[in-house]
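ok so i was messing around last nite and threw this chain in just to see what happens. nothing serious, just curious
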Amino acid sequence: MAVANACMIMGAQVAGRSRAPPLFECRADPSGSAKYERSDSGSSPRKGFLNGAAFPGASAPLILRFPPNFVRQLSIKARRNCSNIGVAQVVAASVTNMPVSSAPANAGEPLVLNCNNSVQADGALLEKDFVTPDGTLAVHSGEKTGRAIVTDAIATPIVQTSTYTFKNTAELIAFQEGRFTSYEYGRYGNPTTQVAEEKISALERAETTLLLASGMCATTTMMLALVPAGGHIITTTDCYRRTRQFIQTVLPKMGITATVIDPADIDSLEMALEQNNVSLFFSESPTNPYLRCIDIELVSKLCHKKGVLVCIDCTFATPVNQKALALGADIVLHSVLAGSLSGSNKVIGTVRALHNVLGGVLSPVSRVHYPGLESHPEHHIAKRQMSGYGGVVSFEIAGDLQATSRFIDSLKIPYIAPSLGGCESLVEQPTIISYWDQSSEERARLGIKDNLVRFSCGVEAFDDIQSDILQALEAV
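result:
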């Protein structure tokens, strides 16, 4: 949320600049072609505000040619999607980007992009003859033909199942031998999360991405997969507390040691590389909480000379503002709501293999309602006037009425009952226990969703309640 707010602020700052020249010169193009071409005309188009910075490697002025009806259709689509603030924030934040790669040999010639009204099939967005900014990648990567589910729905369907079937033994054998692509079990992959993974891969310019349950799940799984017993890690002084705790208290049990250096101390980095059999360099950039920045390109060059992998946690930057892989890192990590690891098929494949054993898949809970959470709309009021936030929490399962019922029926500790109970935990599905006599339309009008769960926590051990909820979520 903090990253999204920062993007919004940056967008507002850009919008507030007085008399800023237009980003692009827009011209009507009746042909509606979407091919990438360079202008052969001798005229010098007006230079854009970013002078091509939005398209990495393009320092020449940019010209966008639109079909005649583009403005009208854009207006219609904008009204339909006015709530899609996340995409707008990505686009707004992208204007702060600086191109990483050097300018092409023919820099100075105007770059012409002819845009039609159709969206190219997924995969085409990354073709060399079609240059596209992060905003478009965030919207369309992983969609269309990239989806593993055939559907006409605009929104990516949420797949709740943990088990997938095969038509016959021949198909199963083909799957095992790599001749047939499908899913087997929720821990090994999910069509919904695959779409998100492909979006992140496109934004990071990575070969592949692995989504995990949390940022710490991504960090710990990555280290366990890539650092052998008796290995050595180099990390920095300023980092997330739990990451440091894992490195200092858990990894030593496997004989893994660590050198901690200042983020800017290159001499100490070179010394540690010389004196230890280092497997991994890990650091945030910007770091948490002091926002120190690592010279990713220099660190990567020094580490690679010694055969050391480099993982950069870019959570505070997001792929909009920093692309660590392009600067030389082997892995980029993000920790926002979930955890992600992006990089080459070889490196991420090693982590994925261990992840398939350890688990740590995304939870099928789509939203939590609790005044103790900053995401709650009245958290600021509750924080001011309450000394605690109560023992009742409501949340929405990422599924329908039946999926939510499967979750509740799979719980072992709480009783299915109304009210708040006493020492014991209670759980209820408001749609069924309180509003079953109402029509679906009436429930929708009242804001009662079929996937809503209310959980009243008793005095049982927290670890027991947590374990029970997690195992029940596996049934969704």
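not much to say yet. The two ends are 26 Å apart (CA to CA).
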